């Protein structure tokens, strides 16, 4: 089934978009204990370097202080962990019955399924909820109810090295738009002595992301329109057969893509050793620092440019345990005020998740390089994070889906085994 037929498209809220004033209008958010002299515990992930000036701890502490100045009866206790640590630390807190009031991390569905999170409708008024971009709000749902508040987002585009294109006799202003064009470009790059014509990171760091980008180019995905797993669909099997036969086997990728992580290829791209690969805004920042002459384009598809691209979001959520619903709602509304939200995303080269902040980025010429990523956000395909079984399924995908494209690999067998495991996970943790 083609992507445009598969996705649920909802129009933007007919009531219009809330401004910053609407984000703070929290009448009707009461119902829990009063906010008098409340201390909220916030646990968040670090998008910078812990202990450095760009650590997210600096942002959150400044924001917490500004919030308390406006709300003297609410203090926010900020803890920031690296991405390597936050998952385990937060899970341990929840498992021990001592969750924070608010968390910012990369998943939420398990805790929503266990009844530990407030619904977004219990935290924010309707105008504030309407500010979130529709695909992101939908991605925050479990069984059609939103629990996850999207915090930041990114999309993927095709990157290519313009100098290497010229070296290979390719037009440096014309990225490949179809799989066949990509194969031809990779062949020319290899003939010109480029070490890695196409970077294919199917190792455990982000195999699930690279795989989904290729699936989308052939009308496939991980799930169908009603959330059933479709990992071994004919479209997906065909996709991995093409990768195996047209890129991996001829040697147009790095050796053993199934064992190669994304950051390794990002590093190689910034050293001028990779001709083409898929990437997100972080790669743009890294390439700029190394003065790499690069271009970007839409992801190639089997017959032309792919209809969509991968979208990824991180999440905020509020736990019920301490009963601080009203205070949590007030703080979260403050977080997503345009000024505050835009300050974070612009600092780290990420995409905003609200309409007003997106409009601000669109007008900010300093962020012009992010506009191609922003253009794709509304139509991006997100992981099925609202499925409670997705956490276990994606862990399995990371370990083995790369085998489907390996030289001598059997895509149908690999994807069918992954489908079987995903269905078993889904039966154990139905969504």
Primary descriptors:
431 residues, alpha/beta, 6-stranded mixed sheet, 4-stranded mixed sheet, 19 helices, 14% strand, globular
* Total number of strands: 12
Q: Work out the helicity level.
A: 40-55%
In one word, what is the shape? globular
Count of runs of 4 or more consecutive helical residues: 19
Low-confidence stretches: 1-35
Structural class estimated from helices and strands: alpha/beta
C-alpha Rg (nearest Å)? 22 Å
Fraction of residues in β-strands? 5-15%
| Main sheet properties | 6 strands, mixed
Distance from N terminus to C terminus (CA atoms, Å) equals: 22 Å
Averaging pLDDT over every residue, what do you get?
91
What does this entry look like structurally?
A hairpin with a 2-residue loop joins strand 4 and strand 5 (145-146). The radius of gyration is 22 Å and the shape is globular. The protein contains 19 helices and twelve strands. It is 42% helix and 14% strand. The protein is of the alpha/beta class and 431 residues long. The chain has helices spanning 3-6, 20-23, 56-70, 83-95, 109-113, 126-130, 134-139, 162-167, 179-191, 207-216, 234-248, 262-270, 281-289, 325-335, 338-348, 355-363, 371-375, 390-400, 411-428, and strands at residues 38-45, 74-81, 102-105, 141-142, 145-146, 149-155, 157-161, 196-199, 274-279, 294-297, 310-318, 381-382. Strands 1, 2, 3, 6, 11 and 12 form a six-stranded mixed beta sheet that branches.
